[in-house]
Amino acid sequence: MPIEFGVKDFIDILLVAFLLYYTYKLMKASGSINVFIGILVFILIWLVVSQILEMRLLGSIFDKLVSVGVLALIVLFQDEIRHFLLTLGSHQRTSILARFLSGSKKEQMDKSDIVPIVLACLNMSKQRIGALIVVEKNVPLYDTIRTGEIIDANVNQRLIENIFFKNSPLHDGAMVISKKRIKAAGCILPVSHNLDIPKELGLRHRAAMGISQITDAHAVIVSEETGFISVAYHGQFYLRLSAEELESILTKED
Ligand SMILES: Nc1ncnc2c1ncn2[C@@H]1O[C@H](COP(=O)(O)OP(=O)(O)OP(=O)(O)O)[C@@H](O)[C@H]1O
Q1: Which residue, judged by its Cα, is nearest atom 20 of ligand 1?
Q2: PROSITE patterns, per this entry (predicted)?
Q3: Alpha helices (H) along the chain
């Protein structure tokens, strides 16, 4: 029987390849690449046992494992799946639809909101005051805001510095800036388990990376140890930034 191969099959293969590549990238970023390889090896053995060798007993055991395995994978990779869906939902084209459905207006940060953040970071960097500031973009940060103390104030350089001052009760944890307002401080962020993060970067950096992997927020870090200013964005670090570089990253549209 001749095998028909049309444009539809080509697109089908291309989409599967893209899906596999994206899964690989997500798992690499979250440090679970070995699980990805394990799954591939399992699928390969399953195909050989049940399709090529046609071993019925072992094949039926593997079939059962595969049907339960899909559920297990959803539980195991809920963060990665969430990130994938968030990335889809926070893409510029789909965010218009998301905003329409949620009824919230887009409030773009302008220079007058970004400059106080940059100046505060610069001052804290000089004084070696540790800070972690998450700037919301398209994906709402309600869950993160709920873990901290609500402030709801205008973005103000002195207020930012005051909050992160060592003896301030809210200096621990992250500040969240949303819709041109300092919404909350002392917030707890999800810590990234990525094994590729350099050992010298501690929990503050890992927490910034964590939130940048599951949302499209900018997470600005001022290191207490070195005074360096860095940003985590879309699962990538931009380290040792100057004030100008920080301003340009925060101003940049997706
Ligand atoms: N999950 C988290 N969410 C929010 N803030 C966190 C989280 N984990 C740690 N932090 C903040 O980071 C601080 C600890 O920073 P740590 O010294 O471990 O990190 P670091 O990346 O080495 O930063 P630094 O260079 O400033 O020392 C905590 O005091 C806390 O304020």
Answers
A1: 202
A2: DAC
A3: 7-29, 33-47, 56-76, 78-90, 92-102, 111-126, 142-145, 157-164, 203-214, 243-251
